[in-house]
Write the structure tokens for this entry.
Amino acid sequence: PLGFVTEDIYRITINMGSQASSPYEERKNNLLAVSNELNTNSKIIDVSIASADPINSVGRYDYLSASPDYQGREKTLLSYIDHSYLNIFNMKLKAGRNFTADEFKVDAQSIIVNEALAHKLQSDGQALNKRFYWQNGGEGKDIYQVVGILRDLSLPNAKEEPRMFIPQVPDHNVQFLLQLKPHQKINKQEL
């Protein structure tokens, strides 16, 4: 078991084109409208807006720190996800909770970390409800609270890297992750 499922999940990578330079709220509202429309398809169970699937980090690294001067900062893979992401991939939390739809809509200062990052942030791994500075969040002075600790993935021949998840629309590499009903297929025309 890898720590996530892949069956009946489709990934659509979006080229934002001229929308990439649009104001954030406009891009976000447009992506939410597309997500809502996709959710009306009878073959689709759920839709997630994210920057990556569970094993594809797109090489985006960032830093969390207990102090605003970023002394002792911890390097981590970063994924932007919404409230549907963990459910679509059936990813399990060790502690805490998933993001809510409201947290995603308002870009809440909440984070979910995996066990590997929780142990880097707190030697005993007890990072739940702790607050950390996200280096590239806001102006690097914003404090984010850990609301969930995700079980580490179990990838063959690979040590699990520290990972953090933020409830925001990605600023690049936007993907729609579709969970289809069992044994369904979907094509471009149906989307």
Remarks:
- DSSP finds four helices and ten strands in the chain.
- The first helix runs from residue 24 to 38.
- The two ends are 31 Å apart (CA to CA).
- The first strand starts at residue 9 and ends at 14.
